[in-house]
Amino acid sequence: MKKLLASAAVAAMLASAPAMAEGMYVEGFAGFTFIDELDWGGGTFDMDSGWNAGGALGGAVWGNWDGEVEISYDRMDYSCCSPNNTHEWRFMGNLLYNIQTEGSLDPYLGGGLGFASVTYDPSDLTDTVFAYQLIAGLRVAVSERWSLFGEYRWHDTFSDPEDSGLEWEHSGSDISFGARVNLN
């Protein structure tokens, strides 16, 4: 059922792309990824902070809602066992609600569904699983076309990645900063 819901949400986002042509934008972001500990192979291990980067193409869907497709990457190292790390590529469809304010700062809230290709290195164990994220941010317009933003994302997978009989966790918090340019 979760796979069906995630697939339907991503398909709906892609199908609405022609309607978004009026308010299209592209954005890029980068920042820090962190979580205290993750499970791997039946044990719990402390994690070091990591990094993330990504981009999105989106547009106004209706009213204060934006829809976007996103590709992003993050990586975190295990504190105990360098150079061991876990990293993932996320392919998400996001829906964001823009809270209009009287000032120049506009907060927004949203979430996304999609897929995460999660790898545990140095063993090169990889699995692709359904993923989700919750998003909260603050955007400030610096011109008619450009805006800057800072945001928090919680990302997780619906099931733990698994390969060669080993299962590991990959979830975390991202704090990112970026820029958006309106294309029309």
Features:
12 strands; 184 residues; mainly beta; eight-stranded antiparallel β-barrel; 8% helix; two-stranded antiparallel sheet; Porin
Domain unit count: 1
Structural class category: mainly beta
CATH architecture: Beta Barrel
Shape label: elongated
Q: How many individual helices?
A: 1
Oligomer: single chain
Order of helices and strands: HEEEEEEEEEEEE
The CATH topology is Porin
Q: Span between N and C termini?
A: 38 Å
Largest sheet: 8 strands, antiparallel, barrel
Strand content: over 45%
Low-confidence stretches: none
Number of strands: 12
In short:
The protein is mostly beta strands and 184 residues long. It has 1 helix and 12 strands.
Q: In words, what does this structure look like?
A:
The protein has a single domain (2-182), classed as Porin, CATH 2.40.160.20. A hairpin with a 2-residue loop joins strand 10 (162-163) and strand 11. The mean pLDDT is 85. The strands form 3 sheets. An 8-stranded antiparallel barrel has the order 1-4-5-6-7-8-9-12. It is elongated and about 50 Å long. With 184 residues, the protein is mostly beta strands. It has 1 helix and 12 strands, in the order H-E-E-E-E-E-E-E-E-E-E-E-E.
